[in-house]
Amino acid sequence: MLFRRKEQNPIRIADKKVHEWKYTTCGYCSTGCSIEVGLDKNGKAVASRGNADADVNRGKLCIKGIFEHELFTIAGRGNKPLMRDKPYEPWTETSWDGALDYMASEIKRIQATYGRDSFSIVSTGQLLTEEFYTLGKLARGCIGTNNYDGNTTLCMASAVSGYKRSFGSDGPPGCYDDFEHTECLIAWGSNLPEQHPIIYWRLKEAMEKRKFPLIVVDPRVTMLAQFADIHLPVTPGTDVVLMNSLMHVILAEGLEDRAYIEAHTNGIEALEACVKDYDPITASKLCGIDEDTIRVVARLYAKAGAAMSIWTMGINQSTHGSDGVVGINSLNLITGNIGKPGGTSLSITGQCNAMGTREWSSCSGLPGYRYLEKPEHRKEIADFWGIDESFFPTQRGLAETDIFPAIETGQIKGLWLVATNPMTSMPNTARIRKTLEKLEFLVIQDAYADVETTHYAHMYLPAAVWAEKEGCFTNTERRVNIVRKVQEPVGESKADFWIFNQLAKRFENGRKIHFPDTVEGAFNEMKQLSKGNTRTLDISGMTHQLIEDSCGIQWPFREGAEAPFQTPSGKNGVKGSPRLYSDGVFQTKDGRANLIPLPFINNNEVPCEQYPFWMNSGRVVEHFHTRTRTGKMGNLNKYSPTPYMEMNPDAAAEQGIQHGTYVRLVSRRGDAVVMVQLTQRVPRNMVFIPFHFFDCVNRVSLGLLDPHSRQPAFKQCAIRIEHVDQKLAAQLNVERRGF
Ligand code: SF4
Q: Atom of ligand 1 at shortest distance to CA of 50?
């Protein structure tokens, strides 16, 4: 019997009645997609679409970007500055002048009583670059605390540290265009389709045009691992063993690029001596990858005309994070894969402007990749700002992860948190709660008054969010793009730039240092500081308008540089520098990169009889960080509203655990209740939990610190699983979901 095809109803796209599209840049991840936000006749943001001119995303957006215009109206925004004598007491509304006067007086009181470094500042990777530069000026030049850091210590500190150790400077050497040229790609602990969907799309498109081997190193069968040619389910925390073994094979079989090593590196003898101990048979027993596969991967990588490695938190969030980055860099150096099309080390950054804080915030040094430890850098910045150079410390102070223990021991009495939420993001929640309760003065500056950490605050300052203000972000591939203002800030909330400028006026040095009134003024100062130096970070050829016309420019882009091109829609833009170190000259004293031996010391917390499961954590595509934004957006949160745990069905059967039920996880630090999702993605002795939820994974995480980067090992600890009362657990889940 023949069926006639029924007339199909055409797909209808709702007419949002967009009157005008405004250019801006996505404020979630570090991919750096250019977005256009659609405004209706009343100026209300009603739609988002990808910008087709932008080389990064070429008209596409992921699910977070598609709904980003909804961000302006979600719940929980703060409208007015709030103050109170003690945490938990009712808030009192105050004026901006009242709040900032009191804040300055409390900072001065604490510093006068306990010393300058007893007041601490922790910022974020979410501000605009001009805001980071201004906060650095305020923190280093006016307040003068050395205990100033960013929450980027939780995500990218190991990449920064590893780049500095290998190449003498921070700065990812590669770019997305390398996907178009590479002949072999290893993704280390990076689940692109969920973490950076548009970078994944760029990779996938390159692979569809020209097939090359994709090798994924990850203990879990992630979405990216499902698409891989070879998946290496490495034992958690042993990536360095695998890297050493790959280098062992390459050097033992003479597959290295000897000419490149001799011309551009130091330390090959020490590296060779170290990796001799990591023959594939020995290494396989430690890292869990069989010896044949190690040999196959080593040969594939070394024999490829160009090979590249990308990585994310699977490498960085480990006690061996910095070593892991150095290992990746060494693998690329010995195979001559740095600075050439398709041959590179490319850290995939987390937050939208984690790069901006690395470059300009002065958290770990002084602006423009300058060091506190170098007298000439201190003098240069002191002269530029017009203050005495002796005001600067001569070495870096505490990282974020050391600031909290210093509060615990009474060394730090006051804390200012800018757009960061340690009650959800830091390991060992119970310890963080106790720590925050010890503070004499805690200020939270955030767009959202309802972030969990605000419970412990004495003051709340309402900040504008994302495109309620204007300035730059730098993405993973060093591309500076511009966020244009699309909406006015809600209520009395203010741009962070304005807040920093106003607070600066209340300090003695704040009256000496010039704080430009406009973000463009701050950008011009940054340009001057980047101009004509020998460092790679040079933005002196950029202007805000040129950045928008080009849909982002990669640094270095020096004054007078010319690289004109036309965007697909015919705009005149410029291209910056896609790669660093193409000339084989690095930022070390003698211009040669460092090959550093990495003997492996196993200090991971490993499963045992009492705690028999590895706990692994990571992201899901619908959420961003601690859900302060995505947890309140129906179009995102409804896809992933519940803290859950991936568990292997065989392990669950052994324990009598059913799919969709709640269980309690217990570690040596604490416990957490989650819903079970059975999947073969995780091996029998491992569970995986998204890290976004409050009162969840970080109640149990260990957070042992990397010795170089001070980044916590979020991803490797041991837990056991217990049954819980299902009704009580369901009730807890409803309360916790909140929105
Ligand atoms: Fe935004 Fe990242 Fe998604 Fe691009 S991939 S739209 S930058 S969240």
A: 6
